[in-house]
Design a protein that fits this description.
alpha/beta; six-stranded parallel β-sheet; about 15% strand; UDP-N-acetylglucosamine transferase subunit ALG13
Length: about 160
């Protein structure tokens, strides 16, 4: 039994497709779902939003993190793990555009993520997560964090160009 955290982010867009797809996981694993503005109620412990400290604790304690294809992907990767990600799709009314689809396709090609394009596949992806995570961590090292001073210098240079 895996500890699974599902998080759909803090934005105003409901992600009912993902939240609704976790029911089989709730029956087989210890699952907590951060539901955001979704209208679907999962059959396991859940909350609409979490304070940042609690979210970080849950991220650190989870064996598997399932998330939208947003900032949480990088957060999980920076924790040394491989997230499972599902892109919100504009055609389904889950987002105003398909930037998450484009991002997830690129991450799937070159990054450390398990992309799920059909939410019915979530149980199989969770079951295979441990082995897939080992493989991806070995094959695709995550680039190191940007040096703080380099970031400040780059932003200062950019601002200076914009002001001119």
């Amino acid at each position: 039994m895996a500890r699974v955290l599902v998080t759909v982010g803090m934005g105003p867009w409901p992600f009912d497709r993902l939240v609704g797809a976790v029911a089989p996981l709730c029956a087989a694993h210890e699952v907590f779902v951060q539901t955001g503005t979704s209208t679907v109620v999962p059959p396991c412990p859940h909350a609409a939003f979490l304070p940042l400290d609690e979210l970080r604790e849950r991220l650190a304690g989870a064996d598997v993190v399932i998330t939208h294809a947003g900032n949480t992907v990088r957060l999980v990767q920076r924790l040394g793990r491989v997230p499972v990600a599902v892109a919100r799709e504009a055609a389904r009314g889950e987002m105003g555009n398909d930037h998450q689809v484009a991002y997830l396709r690129e991450e799937e090609r070159s990054g450390r993520v398990l992309a799920v394009w059909d939410v019915a596949d979530l149980p199989a992806v969770v079951a295979a997560h441990s082995a897939e995570q080992r493989r991806l961590l070995a094959e695709r090292p995550l680039p190191g964090a940007v040096d703080d001073q380099r970031l400040v210098d780059t932003l200062d240079a950019l601002c200076a160009r914009l002001v001119r």
